[in-house]
Structures are given as structure tokens and as C-alpha cells.
Amino acid sequence: MKSQIIGFHQDEFGDWVAELSCNHNQHVRHQPPFQLRPWVTSEQGRLQQLGVQLECRKCDGEPGYLRENRALVRRYYDELWNRWDLDLIPELLAPDFRFRASLGSMARGRSAIRDYVELIRAAFPDFHNHVESMLAEDNRVVARLQYTGTHRGKIFGIPPTGNYISYAGIAIFAIGGHQLVSGWVLGDRYELMRQIGAISEP
Ligand SMILES: [Zn+2]
Q1: Ligand 1 centroid distance, CA of 104 (Å)
Q2: How far is the CA of 181 from the centre of ligand 1 (A)?
């Protein structure tokens, strides 16, 4: 099956990976020489490749529900969070959605997650969740994320600094009845606090 490139990121080891619209990833840098691939090595080259179709072998023979589960998590981040489309909460989240937020707080139910999204939005109005990769198995999806934004409102008691923040996270979702029933997210809270000056360097 052919799939469009929707983004790029570097994996844990610094190698470039193309993100596909099927929500699979494809390593684009494991066959040297890299200098013959300007679309991998330069920012401009990568931007020019967005929308290009690649053959995705991972899609072949994959059960449809795994693709649907990844697409659900993708919508949760791209639409509910990145576009602040909170009207999607009843569609994407189960009524009793249980949530451990990346900053450590626990929430239960749709109104609690709405409050949490609003809290983050007030602190970082341009908050962006970049989904770098997803793995799906059974009723679970694991996503690796990079969160970015600008510190424009109070958080952890720290008044806005205007600092640009960027920290990593891992999320594990459970899916049932075509909705997210739980999300357990571990974010690099220490790194975030350091970037807004809540922690001084030792
Ligand atoms: Zn695929």
C-alpha cells in the first residue's frame, strides 16, 4: 500500500525517519551515502518531500483495527489538542476516560480532561503535540511525543517567562468501542520545569 509522507523526525539514535499518513514510520537514512539524499539531510529537502508517496510494507496484512486505533490517537493529538477542538471530546473519549497527564496529574471523565487541556492552553497557547511514532497491539497504542510551546501563562506557580519549551513524552492508550478509554502519559516534567526556570541547574 502507498502512503504519503506527512512529517519527519529523528529517532532515539538521531537517524531520520519519515512519518507516513498510515501512521507507520519509515527509516530513510539507513542506507549510506547520506550525502546523496539531500531530502534527508536538509530541512528544505525534507519539506519538499511532504506529500510524496512511499510504499509501506508494514500496512500489508495488518488488521484494520490496528490502523483505526492509531488513527484515533492521531486525531486526539492533531485535532483535539493541536487545534484545541474540544468539541471532539465526546466523539473521541469514552465517558469515563481515565487519564494520567504528562505532567503527573490524574483525571477521570470528559470534563476533567477538558479542564486539563484548558490548563495547558492557558500556560502555552501555542502548545503542540508532535507524534513521532506509534506502535499498536491488541487494544493498545503507544505513542512517542515531543511537546513544544511558548510559556505565556502561569504553570507550577511560575509566572510566564516567554521561554520556548520542548520536552519529550511517552503515552499509552487503551481503546474500546472506537473510543479512547484510558491514557497513561509520562512527560519529561523535569526538563519542562528546567526550561521555565522552576528548577535551577545544580
Ligand atoms: Zn503503513
Answers
A1: 32
A2: 24
